[in-house]
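Researcher: Structure prediction, please.
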Amino acid sequence: AVPEKVWYHGQWCPSRGNNCHNTRLTDQKGCCIWYNEPQYLADIEEHLGVTIQQIDTDIKVAADEFDGKVVYGEKKKSAGSGYVGHAGQLANTVATLAKLETQAQDLFLSNFYK
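Model: Predicted structure follows.
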């Protein structure tokens, strides 16, 4: 496999890809990059610490240790982030800040319209 030149539109592209014909590379203010899929695959495998299996033409993927743990696309959107965090701990503080903000705005408006 060899690197492939692919479209990569960014904030520098006024049309963000709509009818864009700028085939220069991004480092030359163009809208293309060299995409080296084997290198990206190697980087991902190194990051995960596993070798990603190749599939046959029947496109059947064997289950592995990541099965069900990595979610993409619509399924992830409908599930939400699942992040609970510390919102409950901060609820009283946020309520107090909201009251203070209202008081500050009331004071400003009362002094402004005297």
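Model: The beta strands are 4-7, 32-35.
Researcher: Thanks, that helps.
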